[in-house]
Each structure stands twice: as C-alpha cells, then as structure tokens.
Design goal:
The chain has 97 residues and is an all-alpha fold. The chain contains 3 helices and no strands. The protein is 71% helix and 0% strand.
Length: 97
Amino acid sequence: MQEWKVTALLPPRFNEAVWRRIEQAEVNKKLSLWSLMTDWLAALLPRPAVAVSYVTVLLALGIAAGYWQARTHTARLDHELGSRYVQSVDPYQKPHI
C-alpha cells in the first residue's frame, strides 16, 4: 500500500464543481417548521440545564393532561352511576342524560 501511487489526474475545475454542488445543496435545502424546530432543539439540548428543564416541562404537561383526562372520565362515570342509581330506586324515573 505504501508503494501505490495515484497517477490519474482529476478533471479540470474539479474543486470548483464540488464546491458549487455543495452550495446548491445548501440552497435547495427546504426550510420547514419541523426542520427549524429540530435544528433549534439540537442546538439547545446539549446544554444540561436546558435539557433538564425541557424534560421537566414535558413531564409536567403529561401529568396535567393525564389528570385532566382522568377527571373528565371520572365525572362522566359519576353522572352515569348516579343515573343508574336513580333508575334502580325509581324505575319510572326518566334517565338524566
């Protein structure tokens, strides 16, 4: 391998063509909201304080959403069970929907 030498020459203006293709690829890169968000997060998350606060906020939002959903479900069940109880005591009572 040490004795092997490359004798082929590069085409004329090869370096210019490579840099031109790189510049065109950067210009043609689509800027979408998703790519901007991922780039922003990729720049911020290597900092430990930002990463911890990001995870804490997501965890708090998840707990709040779960609590809200559980309360909604419980309220609906309470209403349904109350209606069933009233109907069991007085079968001629109209159900409260």
